[in-house]
Design brief:
By secondary structure, the chain is of the alpha+beta class. It has a 39-stranded mixed β-sheet that branches. The protein is rod-shaped, with a radius of gyration of 52 Å. It starts with a helix and ends with a helix.
Amino acid sequence: MKKKYLRPLSIFVAVVVLITLVLNFGANFWLRNNLSGYIKKNSNYNVKYSSLEVDMFTGRISAAGISVRSKNSGDQNTIGLEGSIDTLSVSRLGIYDVLFNKTISSNNLLLVKPDLKITLAKPVDDKTKKKRNPVLFKNLKISNGNITVLRHTKQKFLEVKDLELNVENIQMTEESMERKLPLVFDTYDIKGKDFYFGPDDVYAVTAQTITTEAGQMSIRNFAVKPLLSYQNFRRFHPNDKNLYDFKATEMNFKDVALDDDKVALSHAHFQNPDLKIMTTSAKAVRKKKDLNVTVNMEDVLFKNAKISILNPNGTPKLSAADVTLNINKFVMDSETSKSPLPFEYANFSVAGKQINFVTETQNINIAALAFNPKAVDIRLLRMKPAGQQTTKTIMDLDVDRVRLNINEFRFVENKLKLDVQNILISSMQGKIQAAKNSQKKKGDYSGIEFPLTVKNVELKNSNVAYDNGKAVLILNNLNAKIQNIEMNAATVKNSVPFKTGNYSLAAQKLVYNTEFYNMSAGLLTFGNRSLQLSDFATTPKVSRAQFIRMIPAERDLYDVKVKQITANGIWDLLSDNQYINASQVTLNGMNANIFRSKIPKDDVTEKLLYSSLLRKIKMPLFVQNLDIKNSVLEYEEDTKRSDGPGKLTFGSFAMNVKNLNSGKMKGKPTQVAISVNCRFMNASPMNVKWNFDLLNRSDSFSISGNVADLPASRVNPFIEPYLKVRATGMISDLIFNFKGNSSGLSGILNLKHKDLKVALLKEDGEKNKLLSAVANIFVRSDSGQYPESVPVDNVPRDKTKSFFNFFWKGIEEGLKKTLIGKNVENTEKAVQNTVENTKAALDQNKKDLKDTKQNVTEKVENAKDKVQKKSSGLKNILKKKSE
């Protein structure tokens, strides 16, 4: 039975094979002789070839000596072809798709010595309004080819010469260019020269040679060149921020793989890259379109790079030479492109030299930089002023080295996450000029992932000057440390946007210059728990005469020297919540001179009492104990009539102040207690107790004390030039006890004295005996063994005068009552009238004496005239007689 069907089946198969062979032979014969004419008649091309072989069943086509030319070169809806191909071989061509679906697909395409100019058709057909079908080749091989590809607009798109290409699964259409991947393939082997690629109307990508070997692509003299001048770029692309110009002598890529939306390679090395960016004044516009290409690179290296960024006016903004950048596991995709740093990485390192950066106010130069996620090292940092700005701080600094050790440096949800272990700044020299017309603006911290922390900051061996426009602070041999700096969501709301832990500062020399003073110190150490200042001095920059001419109204001139100032406690001077809580402040070895001249006009502004002045301090302030030891305090005052300044001296001066405060620190006492012990006029022991309460709004106070064993002559250095009075005798004890407030003062005064006399002086310093005798008539020269205290009642306060003037008025009132009597006003009038009468009598005597002298002179002159007349008459008589 099987044999019965086997013979007909074999005959059928043989017939089918025979027919197939005949059809294949016939098709080949027909195609060989008629394909050229058919293509010419039914296509848009004129095609010639010297030989052709076609296998209908396998889809294999082989041709040689081919030339092709488009019939209508101006037709933008068809691909334009012009040129020749020495040999063409296509395997597994979908002939049916070519003839009926107008798509080209093949397993393999071989082109030998192609010399072609290809003009791409429009991405969308004008008639069908459909996108064109892609050209698909599983494998493409080109040998010794010269190919030029133009856009449908005749703009050059791609060009390469001497091309040797072997690519698998390649796909190329103008539509793919929109994804920035004009070629998509799996594996490749390429060699060529004079490469050109024009992705758009702004840039052209060129390379002198491209070669591959063992999976590595090498490109020589690569460049991305702008096709437009800077002026035309701004004209035709007004919304674009930057124009780029890039070149590199050599680029190496290994294991390149292109997928539909992915670029991957194991490494990308750029030798001697040179990047130039020309910025415009256009505002940066965030593009809504996400990056639709994923780029993966295991290792990226830019070696010996140059970078230049220019401002719109052509001046440099940033430049760097000899930069080396290495990035490991580089990834850029649609998500990372939204971040300020548009890519991710596993690790990176940057090293560069001669880096210059110019801002509106600063010109910054870095001799050498090294930077990676764990450390930053900056050598020879220079910051110089770039202009005369008044609204921003300007720095003129040279820094030998800046080093950072970093615990964490990364981006989290488009924000910088930074944790720094140490920052070390070595040898900073120069000046910081504060903004003169500072415009406070809220800082933008939206790009920071909080908290941002710095564990330690250290400044070593520095010399810095800070000028705020009114005064200059100079710190020599400065060393400083700050710990636990933190910036968080709460701190950035403050004027100082961070908080700190412990800090310390030490300087071998401090200088602070103001309009009238030079302040200096030999050694300064300062932290958040202690302060030490040695050899502190505040000395006038001008003479007393110059100072008097410079001030518009009365003002004190200070000359202060202190051997040592120390303070202990806790305080915060770096945040918005500033406070001082000191347990002990000591000034040891102070020598202070205070000079005031009465020559300028009076300062009639209100002088607040000390309790009111302390309340005006805005920050919480509390000093538990303040001591001034081993000191000297001098006060000098002169007037227009004084012969030099009068001088008061308080030697061996010691003062203790308890609870010095501003009344703003909760839980702290507000009662201020002051005690003073000194040698008045370097001779007599003086003791003072002074108390007031900050919370008492009427500024009530009490002050009591005494001066003992004071020779009256000791006060002559003050009263002689100032009051033209000289005193003699002894003040055994002067005791006072006053209470007062902002309105007035009352109390008692007790004076024990002996042989007290005064001498009123003439302008030349000589004693006026008559007036002195008159004045001493009214002065009680002896108080007796047990003098009575006199009341001091309702001494009014002149609010334009200081507290010490107010206090002296109380002493003066008590002295008047003690020395003149309780009926002070009448006695004063009597003394005044007596002195005036005495002066009037003296003046009258002087006048009478002068008149008498004048009369005598006149009589002498008259007598002389009479004698002369008689002599003249006698001469005339004798003359006549002789005649």
